[in-house]
Write a structure and sequence with these properties.
- The complex is a heterodimer of chains A (about 120) and B (about 55).
- Chain A is mainly alpha-helical and about 120 residues long.
- Chain A is about 80% helix and about 0% strand.
- Chain A has one domain.
- Chain A has 4 helices and no strands.
- Chain B is about 90% helix and about 0% strand.
- Chain B starts with a helix and ends with a helix.
- The relative contact order of chain B is 0.09.
- Classes of the chains: A mainly alpha (about 120), B mainly alpha (about 55).
């Protein structure tokens, strides 16, 4: 194996591993958070960065060919579609949940942190 | 989606990435359609309830 192949293997592996770590973070966030909008925030990590990192890693493994181009298209499409999907789902929640105000905390950052400290 | 992409690289079959892209498109379309239908049905039901309350 030449040095360039070693470097390619290493960078591809790092990207793939980074993507998997981000997926793990996403999963933790989804199961840790209680409310749907918070869960969406966690899920967006995997939808954008997680998949992108994994696909960039695979693109590095694959080299210059049509498969790499198609993977880049998948990444671009996901970057474009994921915020739109998130926006639609959050709008659905806001429009159809009559008890939305229960989940929203109003106040300054200091007030919110103080109330959290009191709760804990 | 990443699984399909990994499979395409392992099997050296480029068409599997096309499936990946189509999968992404279908999931995006599904989100749009389902959210639109849900909101529309919710508004219909809500209007019905409001009208019934007004009659009583």
């Amino acid at each position: 194996m030449s040095i360039i192949e070693h470097i390619r293997l290493l960078t591809g592996g790092v990207f793939l591993l980074g993507g998997l770590v981000l997926f793990a973070l996403e999963l933790y966030g989804i199961y840790h958070m209680k409310y749907v909008l918070n869960r969406m925030h966690a899920a967006a990590i995997g939808d954008t960065l997680g998949i992108s990192f994994c696909l960039i890693g695979l693109m590095i493994f694959s080299g210059w060919n049509w498969t790499t181009l198609k993977m880049a298209l998948v990444v671009l499409f996901l970057w474009w579609s994921s915020p739109v999907s998130s926006h639609l789902i959050s709008r659905l929640e806001v429009e159809t949940n009559p008890e939305l105000s229960k989940h929203l905390k109003k106040g300054t950052l200091e007030e919110i942190t103080e109330s959290k400290e009191e709760q804990s | 989606m990443v699984g399909i992409a990994v499979l395409s690289l392992l099997l050296k079959e480029g068409f599997l990435v096309d499936i990946c892209l189509i999968y992404a498109m279908i999931s995006f379309l599904a989100v749009i359609v389902i959210t639109k239908i849900y909101v529309r049905e919710y508004i219909k039901e809500h209007q019905k309830e409001v009208e019934e309350d007004e009659h009583h």
